[in-house]
Amino acid sequence: MFKEKIVKELTNVLESKGFEDISVEGFIEVPPSPELGDYAFPCFRLAKQMRKSPIEIATELAGVFAELSWIKDVVANNGYLNFFIDPDHYSREVVGQILEQGEDYGARNYGGTVVIDFSSPNIAKPFSVGHIRSTVIGNSLAKIHTHLGFAVERVNHLGDWGTQFGKLMVAYKSWGDSSALQEEPLKELLRIYVKYHQEAEKDGSLDDNARAWFKKLEDGDQEALELWKEFRKVSLIEFKRVYERLGVEFDSYDGESFFNDKMEAIVNYLEEKQLLSESDGALVVDVGEDLPPCLIKKKDGATLYATRDITAATYRWDRYKFEKLLYVVGVTQSLHFEQVFRVLKQMGYSWADRCIHVPFGTILFGEESMSTRKGNVIFLEDILDQAVNKVKEILKERNLPADQGTDIAEKVGVGAVIFNELSHNRIKDIEFDLDKIISFEGDT
User: Fold this and answer.
1) Which member of 79, 124, 142, 370 has the greatest number of CB atoms within 10 A?
2) Taking a C-beta distance cutoff of 8 angstroms, is the pair 131, 330 a contact?
3) Partners of 303 in beta bridges
4) Does residue 402 carry a pLDDT above 80?
5) Burial (CB count <10 Å: 0-12, 13-18, 19+), residue 333
6) What gap in Å lies between CA 342 and CA 310, rounded to an integer?
């Protein structure tokens, strides 16, 4: 809005000085620091035609804009013309447009499909507070892209395969409680998972037994499959309840297991393209001197996360023909995605440049780190409940009717947790402080 106004005024000024063939559109910049203004125009490109130095030109032009009501100040700075928009005028303009356009404010109609891979918790493990950053950042990106007119596909790439299921099967058959699995599935699965690791430290045969059960699962053994399906089913019920409270929906819950029968074709294609090489018995793809090789198959023939993500990306392209494929995953996985994207490019896929990793920092808990094996886990739903209960206490003090207070408390309490995640710099680590999150003082 104001950028267009600056272009118009600057063009008029130059034309009045006899320079009608000078185009300024496309050259207005946003300065790197707010102290330098809201917009800037480099006068260097005018020097030849105006036969003056950029500093002289900037100084001469600065005085012309002094009378405009929507400009607070224009400053000549080392050959740049720096514009400071009047904040009162800016507020009236923007708020007026918002009130006039309502929910359509800022909307666009770009078209095309954007696939967003976010949240992606592990089946049969707690939906912990550690998952919230990917969940709310991904959901916000989905809302933004929808408002911009893209068809958005929200993908929850569940961690629903791997050797941990062999451990869970051994644990469930040894110490599981079927009633507890139905009543509080994730807490029961966490209990037996922790129990397994405690016992495995004393009895090494448990790990052999777990590997045998996972092999059964891979081979399609009926009992192993039934247990795996049950773990997945009860976990999804729990996950979806939390997602509903957060206002998050997904179009696909295709997890790692979905790509089991699709990976071999990708490995074969890598071989056909002569991209695979052997390294200590494993199969890798060389992705450049600046990065370690991308591991595709381990020495024992097992596939890895990279194999699955390469397979998933090709599947998503075939299905969606996306404009963008966003991976909302922690910054610790940056190397992994660099390797995967380079492999996709080497495979000849021009759309590999449309794959984008959206990294974010880690949630810190002081000196205490979260560990599923040790049971050091903070359930996200427990955090939401605590936030809601805190708001209920405050509303009770204000004598709100119980039914009205409950509805408000849910919205404000859950909203406070979401706001805490979105109010921080995405890429920075943040210290988790529940008291601060649900405080009614300060920026919360």
Assistant:
1) 124
2) no
3) 297
4) no
5) middle
6) 10
pLDDT in tens, 13-47: 888 877 766 677 778 889 998 899 999 999 887 88
CA angle at residue 56 from 55 to 60, to 5 degrees? 120
The separation between CA 349 and the C-alpha centre of its own chain, rounded to angstroms, equals 24
Q: Which amino acid makes up residue 57?
A: I
Among left, alpha and beta (phi > 0; psi -120 to 50; other), residue 102 is left
The predicted pLDDT at position 376 comes to 61
- Find out whether 38 and 44 touch, Cβ atoms under 8 Å: no
Q: What is the mean pLDDT of residues 91-111?
A: 92
Instruction: Report yes or no: 444 and 420 within 8 Å, Cβ to Cβ.
Output: yes
- What is the number of alpha carbons within 13 Å of residue 386 lying toward its C-beta? 15
Q: CB count, 10 Å around CB of 214?
A: 22
Tokens representing 66?
């002094």
Write out the two tokens for 316.
């998503």
From edge to edge, which strands make up the β-sheet containing 39-42?
39-42, 80-85, 71-77
Please state the three-class secondary structure of the chain as a single string.
Answer: CHHHHHHHHHHHHHHHCCCCCCCCCCCCECCCCHHHCCEEEEHHHHHHHHCCCHHHHHHHHHHHHCCCCCEEEEEEECCEEEEEECHHHHHHHHHHHHHHHHHHCCCCCCCCEEEEECCCCECCCCCEHHHHHHHHHHHHHHHHHHHCCCEEEEECCCECCCCHHHHHHHHHHHHCCHHHHHHCHHHHHHHHHHHHHHHHCCCCHHHHHHHHHHHHHHCCCHHHHHHHHHHHHHHHHHHHHHHHHHCCCCCECCCHHHHCCCHHHHHHHHHHCCCEEEECCEEEECCCCCCCCEEEECCCCCECHHHHHHHHHHHHHHHHCCCEEEEECCHHHHHHHHHHHHHHHHCCCHHHHHEEEECCCCEECCCCCCECCCCECCEHHHHHHHHHHHHHHHHHHCCCCHHHHHHHHHHHHHHHHHHHHHCCCCCCCEECCHHHHCCCCCCC
CA angle 155–158–159, rounded 5-degree value: 150
CA 316 to chain centre: 18
> How large is the average pLDDT for residues 197-223?
93
